[in-house]
Amino acid sequence: NAGVTQTPKFQVLKTGQSMTLQCAQDMNHEYMSWYRQDPGMGLRLIHYSVGAGITDQGEVPNGYNVSRSTTEDFPLRLLSAAPSQTSVYFCASSYGWEGGYGYTFGSGTRLTVV
Amino acid sequence: EDQVTQSPEALRLQEGESSSLNCSYTVSGLRGLFWYRQDPGKGPEFLFTLYSAGEEKEKERLKATLTKKESFLHITAPKPEDSATYLCAVLFGGGAQKLVFGQGTRLTINP
After folding, report:
1. How near does any CA of chain A get to the CA of B1, in Å?
2. What is the pLDDT of residues A15-46, one digit of tens each?
3. How confident is the model at residue A103 (pLDDT cuts 50, 70, 90)?
4. B interface mutation test: which of A90, A101, A103 has the most B CBs within 10 A?
5. Which residues in chain B have their CB less than 8 angstroms from residue A31's CB?
6. How many whole angstroms separate alpha carbon A74 and alpha carbon A52?
7. How far apart are CA B88 and CA B73, in angstroms?
């Protein structure tokens, strides 16, 4: 039982490049979400999904795209990387979006945009 | 504006010295308050969910309480392995996206 798996763990991009951050969970969780964590800012929600085929925007969605074709996978795409997107990105999943069961977080992807 | 504020930003204690961390919130329609623990280089780990004022939850040396305006995470006789950043998050409003995290309290327990 791997939980929530994020790849890669570290990535350096040049401004303007695109990439996809991968997130997979093996717990059959319906709810999945992406957060970014910046010093002094706390965790901020980027996009979330309440089930396969359903996604919606969070607090800071600009510059990011998501899709949810299967229950297990929820990739985050950076369309044209900018230095402001330098951050640590966390994927999380839960049985329900209420969060009462507790979100399970991945170990994070540390992204640097130069 | 909906806000979640944690204090102090950092706290250093001696092993065995009990204390409390605070999470205050100004949101409309609170639906749940969550505490997480985060170790360096790792994702947050779920600790507790509290739903209504007066509710309490316990786990080992940790006890979380909730009032209408704030939550406390009490740490009793802490050990060095309790050192971590503790995050508070509040779920409110009518949509699944409205989970707001505080900035965290970095707790260090010296042996």
Report:
1. 14
2. 999 999 999 999 999 999 999 999 888 899 99
3. confident
4. A103
5. 96
6. 9
7. 9
Distance CA A108, CA B43 (A): 6
**Under 8 Å between Cβ of B37 and B107:** no
Reference A17, options A72, A97, A81; nearest CA is: A81
Nearest to A30 by CA among A110, A108, A98: A98
| Residue pair B31/B92 in contact by the 8 Å Cβ criterion | yes
Does residue B82 sit in helix, strand or coil? helix
- pLDDT tier at B42 (50, 70, 90 boundaries)? very high
- What distance in Å separates the CA atoms of residue A104 and residue A25, rounded to the nearest whole number? 9
Supply the pLDDT for residue B97.
59
Mean local confidence (pLDDT), B51-77:
96
Q: Do B44 and A105 touch (CB under 8 A)?
A: yes
